[in-house]
Structures are given as C-alpha cells and as structure tokens.
Amino acid sequence: MNGSGLLPLDAWSLTLQQLEFHFDRALYNTYVRGALLLRVEAADGETFVIGVKNTYARDMLQHKLYRNIHRVLTDVYGRPVELRFEVSRTADPAQPSYEDMPLFKLLKEQDATGTPDAAASGGSAEPRAPLHQQIARPRRPDLPENVLNPRFTFSRFITGPENALVYAAAQS
User: Fold this and answer.
1) What confidence tens digit (pLDDT) does each residue in 40-58 have?
2) CA torsion 61→63→65→67, rounded to 10°?
3) What are phi and psi of 37, to 5 degrees?
4) Which residues contact 157 (CB under 8 A, 6 or more apart)?
5) How far apart are CA 120 and CA 128, in angstroms?
6) 18 in a domain, yes or no?
7) Which CATH number fits the domain that encloses residue 85?
8) Which DSSP symbol is given to 31?
C-alpha cells in the first residue's frame, strides 16, 4: 500500500488530470492523452508501466516529459515510483466512425469489400450504394453557347510582324 492509500489505477487517473493542467493543450493531446496504466511491477520498488499509442509518443514521454510526469505521479501516489512507457495496442484511439473517415479510406475499404465496413457504418449490414453515388455533386447552371465578346474574335484580329507568331499558334 502507498502513503496516500490510492490504488495505482486511481493514482494514474489523477496524474492524467493534473498533467492536463500542467502541459499546454497541444502537448497533452498529442502525447499524454490516451496513455493507459498497463500494469504495476513491484520487482525493485514500484514501476508503473504505461501504454502509449506509438513509438514517437513513447520516446517523447520517456526522454522529454519523464521528469514532469514522474514528479506529478510521485506526489499523487505518495511514494517514489518509476515509470516505463511501452507501445500498446490498447492505447490506440477507437476507430473513427463512418462519417469521420477520410474519403480515401472509405474508397479503399469499398474497393476491398465492396461496401463500407458494417461496424464502421453504425452496425447496419445492408448493402450501400457505391460511394461515388452517395456523394452529391455540385450543380452548375448550363453555360450559354456563346460567351465571347464579338469585338474580340479572330475575325477582327489585326496581324502584324510583332504578333504573327502568336496569331499562327492560336489558329493551329
């Protein structure tokens, strides 16, 4: 048991809440948000093993933000602890919904399966129309046949030695 009587999971949750105020929003959202307590190892004191979403976040937390996180966690937990960061699939954010997916991912998924993933589309198993039919195309009014000013046509163009080459190129 620790000095404050907190369970390790509760201590990590409180640490995350305090770190949200300690770091600026972009830094917290990029590296700290979504970090999960995987386990506590008690071989040489207590070591908190934290799961993060990718190696870049792991390296940033381990090398740049370690001291700040360690200090806050030690204060919250009530006794000195060690931290170790590991890449964990459970720390990955949830898959985006069908509406939040980028168009290129939807097209790739549709090419692979014929329809968007039923789980990503909200659980409906019914076939959907092809994606190009689901997307509304912008409509534009029909263009008039002749929008050229009659004063500026080739029949009224005066050719001289300076623009003969340009006139020949435009006619071809």
Assistant:
1) 888 666 889 999 999 999 9
2) 120
3) -75, 115
4) 167
5) 13
6) yes
7) 3.30.300.180
8) I
Number of domains in the chain: 1
Which two structure tokens, joined as six digits, stand for 70? Answer: 């360690």
Q: Average pLDDT in the 107-116 region?
A: 64
Between CA 79 and CA 46 the distance in angstroms is 9
Q: Is residue 170 part of a domain?
A: no
The verdict on pTM exceeding 0.70 is no
Q: Over the stretch 17-36, which tens digit does the pLDDT of each residue have?
A: 999 999 999 999 989 988 99
C-alpha 2, offset from chain centre: 38
The partner residues of 51 in beta bridges, in order of sequence, read 36, 86
Query: Could you list the residue range(s) of the whole structural domain that residue 72 is in?
Result: 8-91
> Is residue 139 included in any domain, yes or no?
no
Q: What tokens were used for 96? A: 């985006």
Determine, yes or no, domain membership for 109. Answer: no
* 30-53 exposure pattern, b = at least 16 Cβ within 10 A, e = fewer: ebbbbbebbeeeeeeebebbbbbb
Rg (CA), the chain: 31
**First CA to last CA distance, the chain:** 89
Please check whether residue 96 is in contact with residue 21, taking contact to mean a CB–CB distance below 8 angstroms.
no
DSSP structural state of residue 95: P
What is the number of H-type helices and E-type strands within the chain? 7, 3
